[in-house]
Every structure is written in structure tokens, then in C-alpha cells.
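Exercise 7. Predict the structure of Adenosine 5'-phosphosulfate reductase from Magnetospirillum moscoviense.
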Amino acid sequence: MTVIDPRAAYGALEGRELIEVMARDVFPGRIAVTSSFGAESAVLLDLVAQVDPDLPVIFLDTGELFDETLAYRYQLERKLGLTNVVVVRPTDEDLKAAQDLWRTDADRCCELRKVWPLARAVAPYGALIDGRKRGHSLERQTISTVEQAGLVTKISPLANWSEDAIETAFKLRGLPRHPLVEQGYRSIGCWPCTRPTKPGEPARAGRWVGSAKSECGIHTLNFGTDGAGI
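Solution. The predicted structure, encoded as C-alpha cells:
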């Protein structure tokens, strides 16, 4: 039997076309979407809904999200007709261990609130669709539309999309904005570690301000190896 390398076979695709081939042909029944329901999430979720509104959308409720994000999740769910939003939360034990940890150890806080809950949630899936884009930060400038992370294939249909392309999609599709965008938030995570960005700054400059940290860890996890995602 010939084994197909998804990156080699489909890495030139993007947007809705990439989502469609991955969901229907390559990973049928074994693919999910991860979404923060953040500043630009509506564009990816709109494409997903066009392909299959019943695709599982994994939403990490860390216990420290903005109220506006929780409300936006329901708004997008109704607007786009998403029928399978899966809310994932840390265990009670992890929440207890993470209490106020963002003040002293942001990496450990992210691990307890985001990384391990996601790893447990995605165990049944062979592929994950995310909204990462090369223009978000220096760390993301080399991401591909299709990558391998341990035993899981990571699919970033918008990796090559520019800010202008995202803005055009919002307007053409009539997509609602996250309530915090008009206050200067361009990348939205947990409230203790998220600030508005200044003009000219990268989209993720408002995350973990004052530290060298730039990623929470969920996009650098090698799923299915060293116990991750199993």
C-alpha cells in the first residue's frame, strides 16, 4: 500500500480547498479544528462551516478567558451554524495548581491550562486545523500549510494569508468582529497575559508583554510522543 505524504501531496493548497480535501479525502472522521475564537478566528471558522459545519471545533476554556471571548464564541457558533463546538477545560486539579501562576511562571500556567487539556482532547484525531499565519510573528514566519507534529498532521489553511486578505474576508462574508478588536487587541488569549497592541507592532506583540515568551505551547507540541496527546 502506498503511503501518501500529506505535505508533499497537498502542501500547495490553502484556504477552503485545503480544508475540504483534508476533511473529506485524507482524514475523514479523524480531523478537528482548534480555535481560540479570537480576533481573526471568524475567517477560518467560516471556511470550516462552508466545508462541513459538523467538523469538531475544539475550544479551550482556560478559566481565564475574557468574558468577551466567551460571548463571541456563542455569536460565531450561531452565525456560522457550527454544530460541534467541543469545549475543553483543565481538570480541577490543574486549575488549582495554576491559580495565579501566570504571575510567576507563565509557561507552567499555559501548560496546565492549555497544553495538557488540548493533548488529552485531540487523542482521537489524526489531523488538526488551526488559524496560524506567517505574518503573526517572527516565530511563525516559516510555518507551512501542512506540517507534522509527532503523530498528528497540523493544517494551517491561512498560513500564507496577509492582513489585507483577512480583512477582505471579514468584509465580503459579513463576519462579526471580536468585541475587543476595536479596543486595539489583535491577538487575544487569557486576560492576565493579553494587552492591546500599538500601531506598527506585530499582531502577537500584546501577548506576554515584558517576557521572552511568544507561544503558549499548543502549537509546538509533538502530539502522541512522550505521552503528549495519548
